[in-house]
């Protein structure tokens, strides 16, 4: 998305795909934390959830931008994600449009807003 100069359908799909991916991150965090809680590692689970709390907030913020068409706010949200994703390297082979194509329509059809 960083290379995009204008808002187009692909930008909308990429943004929506990000919401779905951030939700997946959050689900993984919850699964890990629950496993630690079952073993009595309450503090570790709480710290882990706090460390990844940004992901659910980011998903909600990006979804809000998409649902309300407030696309002018998206660049700021993307900038806020940079510190959290700085170490992630995206390989060219993983950037196939099929991964995000149609994600905007899926998100808009999703009735569980937020």
Name the overall outline: elongated
Number of separate domains: 1
Largest sheet: none
Our measurement of the CA-to-CA distance between the termini, rounded to an integer number of angstroms, reads: 22 Å
> Order of SSEs, N→C?
HHHHH
Strand share of the residues?
A: under 5%
Average pLDDT number:
87
**Class of secondary structure makeup:** mainly alpha
Radius of gyration: 16 Å
Number of extended strands: 0
Helix share of residues?
55-70%
Number of helical elements: 5
**Uncertain stretches of 5 or more adjacent residues:** none
- What's the oligomerization state? single chain
Structural write-up:
There is one protein chain. The protein is mainly α and 114 residues long. The protein has one domain (9-109). Helices cover 66% and strands 0% of the residues. It is built from five helices and no strands. The longest helix has 30 residues, at 9-38.
Spell out the key features of this protein.
mainly alpha, 114 residues
């Amino acid at each position: 998305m960083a290379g995009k100069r204008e808002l187009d359908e692909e930008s909308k799909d990429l943004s929506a795909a990000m919401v779905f991916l951030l939700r997946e991150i959050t689900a993984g965090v919850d699964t890990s934390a629950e496993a630690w809680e079952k073993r009595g590692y309450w503090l570790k689970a709480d710290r882990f959830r706090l460390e990844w709390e940004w992901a659910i907030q980011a998903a909600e913020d990006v979804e809000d931008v998409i649902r309300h068409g407030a696309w002018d706010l998206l660049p700021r949200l993307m900038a806020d994600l940079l510190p959290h994703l700085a170490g992630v390297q995206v390989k060219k082979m993983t950037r196939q449009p099929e991964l995000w194509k149609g994600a905007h329509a899926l998100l808009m059809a999703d009735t569980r807003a937020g």
